[in-house]
Amino acid sequence: MANDVLFPEQFLFGGALAGNQYEGGYDRDGKGLSIVDVEPAGPERNDMLQHPKKYLTIRDDLYYPSHKAIEFYDHYKEDIKLFADMHFSALRISINWARIFPNGDDKEPNEAGLQFYDQVIDELEKYHIEPIVTISHYETPLALVERYGSWTNRKLIDFYLTYAETLFRRYGSRVKYWMSFNEINCITENPFIAGGLVLDDESNKVQAIYQASHYELVASAKATKLLHELVPGALMGCMLAFSPYYAKTCKPEDQMAALQQNRVTLFYGDVHARGNYPSYMNRFFKEHHVILDITDDDRKVLKENTVDYISFSYYMSHTVDAEHKSELAAQAYASVENPYIPKSDWGWPIDPLGLRYSLNMLYDRYQKPLFIVENGLGARDAVEEDGMINDDYRINYLNDHLVAVAEAIKDGVALLGYTTWGPIDLVSAGTGEMEKRYGFIYVDRDNRGNGTLKRSKKKSFDWYRGVIDSRGATLKQEEFNTTSVQ
């Protein structure tokens, strides 16, 4: 099977980024503060994510990696040129909400912020790179948290729609692919990062999380309706963080645990793609004393405005047994060790076949086009004496995952494209580190913001370009990935 072309001509290949992790310029040209701008690096970060209430102002004694990140705000032409040199056909970016509406509830948008993204899209068009735009990617304006309680307040739906309409009118003729919320289901695991929720004093956190989720789901459906009205032919996708659960054993209780754990994520896909709340949530809500504010209009807009495609991130699979499963929001990613698969430097399971499994699971369930918009390996890269970064481990990781993707396409999965996470090194959303590197391009910056910011190509840079140019023919295919699902 060597030298087979594995991906169709129209398949979109590229990378994915998030404004709050690479832009920098956190207070430039009228931008307001977003929640990520008060997320410090270092040991305080975990405490902040669990107890954000005491961290909502910027402190002189803490380092905030988003403030400068890798300064794409000043380097966007150089960086996009490097992506073009890899022959990207697509780049997933996000718009930073607080750059357009500094407080989130402003009456008029910030023109300087709009002009910045005009310039970014200009550069992408210059190199024939398709922009894929996430409307909200972990950067709820901080003022919306302080004034309204963020997404626990129904008012945020209208603020979000004003923001989305501004983007559709400004960039709609230039952007075909949109996503409403990044990894919307992560609000169950990281309520502050994903939804700007400050739950320190909440007696029923599950209630708050799923009420906020509902308002986000309604906002997504209304934005989908608005996009279709304003920009005929444009497509709206939802975006899930998808890590499928395997049962630890064939014990029936373990199988049931895996089913229930998968539903923590699939719930969000079900509402986005099917247009209604799945029946299995009724018991969950009853047992967790959740009573949602859902109007008849909410139900109608959800039903009539399902997404056009399902996008998702895939980094790993999880394994669960009956003893360790947890449907509780704060423990959504409970997992036990899987002895059959290796781990990354950060302890994440490396499971290429799990990506094929995920693609088939999602396509079987929804029968809508899929889009892999994040996949990659965070690792510590070493710069050799001659300046080379020999990241064969990243090449091997991506090679095996892309082979699994090709097999899923043969299985019959309709797939729009594949964008690796972090094609250029950027700040980690979870840890705030720079040393957890994903890129094909090395950025000289350390965990404390020191460095020259020089961009350097890693060994994987030319490798990925070769994969794109050959549409997968240069991939090394492994036997475990080429077996039929029949």
From TrEMBL:
Signal peptide boundaries: none
One MF annotation (Gene Ontology) recorded for this entry: 6-phospho-beta-glucosidase activity
Catalytic site positions: 374
EC number(s) stated in the UniProt entry for this protein: 3.2.1.86
InterPro entries: GH, GH_1_N_CS, Glyco_hydro_1, Glyco_hydro_1_AS
Keywords: Glycosidase, Hydrolase
TM annotation in the entry: none
Pfam families, sorted: Glyco_hydro_1
Assigned protein family: Belongs to the glycosyl hydrolase 1 family.
Protein name: 6-phospho-beta-glucosidase
Source organism (scientific name): Sporolactobacillus spathodeae
